[in-house]
Structure formats: structure tokens, C-alpha cells
Amino acid sequence: MSESAGQKSVKQQRAQQRAQKVEAYQQERRAQQRKRRIGIISGSVGGAAVLALAVTFIATSAEPAKRPQDIAIAGLEEFTNLPATHVGPDPVDYEGNYGMQPPAGGDHFQAWLNCGVYSEPQQNESAVHSLEHGAVWVTYNPETVTDAQLDELRSKVPDQYSIISPYPGLETPFAVSAWGAQITMDSPDDERLGQFVDRYWKSASAPEPGASCMGANEGPGRVI
After folding, report:
1. Which terms are listed as keywords in the entry (predicted)?
2. Beta carbons within 8 Å of 39's beta carbon, 6+ residues apart
3. Number of DSSP helices (H) and strands (E) in the chain, helices first
4. Under a CB-based contact definition with an 8 Å cutoff, are residues 156 and 129 in contact?
5. For residue 97, what are the CA distances in angstroms to 21, 61, 91, 93, 100?
6. How far is residue 176's CA from residue 210's CA, in Å, rounded to a whole number?
7. pTM as predicted
8. pLDDT tens, position by position, 100-136
9. d(CA 43, CA 19)
10. Distance between CA atoms of 114 and 158, rounded to whole angstroms?
């Protein structure tokens, strides 16, 4: 009896060990399956997030860029059917002929004003010729505008195809003109300055867009 009982005990121990190994193996399998499920769920969520970002990017990129001529500018004054005849040497009465001062187009002298920054007033007729080539002309009242405002103005206006000059007697601190268009401002902080430049600087609506803005009449007091 004792021998049989001893043999049975060994068999029971081996069976118990096998059962433990099987249980451990099954537990490991279940753990691996849980990890795979978590990975699949995480991958699905991550993939969905990436897909959503991609769709958003494509939708945003697909939005058409706003054309310059479609930019709305509050307080914009437009002048249509302006002549572009070369005249001289007599000055042009822009206020009497076209109802604008400073001028934003019309008859002008044959030689345009070289674009740049000036510390002295410039001839209307030469500056208007520059507008014909697509330049933007920013005039200011020297009695009311500060040096700090001028520095800020220069930082917001393109270096090329632009003119900055004082305009004594100007009714507002600033006037920004292009061919056939004009706005007035109290400060260079005005967001419309950027809108105006975006719409009219080197604009195709000028009579001679892309023609030179240098190599002609060098006005007095040129700074830059």
C-alpha cells in the first residue's frame, strides 16, 4: 500500500505540474491577445485622427485664394475712366478736373517720379505717372504726423514701386493712392493700409503695369 500510494503521489504531482504549465501558457496567450486588441484599437483611433487631420488640411488647402481685386476695403474711393495723357509743362488741376487731391490718376507729365521715400513734397504730375506704372503713393501731412509714425509707415510699405512723401495742407494725416483708387487714414496702424497694398500694389488694373518706377525724375529730398 505504501509503494502504490507513493507512486500515485508522484503521478499526481506530475499531473499538477502539467496543469500549471497549461494554465500559465493560456494566461500568456490571453495577455498577448489583450495587447493585440489594445494595439488595434489604438491604431484605429490614431489612424482616424490622422485621417481627420488630412481631410482638414485638404479642405483648407482646397479653398481658393482671394484675388486682389476681391479684397474689400472700407472707405475706398474709386475713380473711373481717368485719362492718361502726357501733358506739360503746365500743372494739372486734379481737384478741379477729377475731384481728387492728392491725385490718384489722370493726365500727367511725361517723366515719372522715381519711387522711394522723400522728405520734401513732390510734383503731382510726376507722381501720377508712377501710379500709371502700378506704384502706390502714400502722402502725409507733415504738420500732424510724427517721426515714429513715419518709421512705422515705412515698415509697412514695400521698398519698390512705392512713394512716400509729405503733402502740406492734406486734410487727413495720411492718404494712400493708386491709379483710380484712394483711402485716407489717421494712423499707419490702420489695417486698410495692408489691404490697399495687397489690392493695388503693382496692380494689373494700372494703365501700364510693370513699367519702370526708376530711371526718370529724381525728386527733391530723396531719403531712400
Report:
1. Membrane, Transmembrane, Transmembrane helix
2. none
3. 5, 6
4. no
5. 105, 47, 12, 6, 8
6. 19
7. 0.72
8. 999 999 999 999 999 999 999 999 999 999 999 999 9
9. 36
10. 14
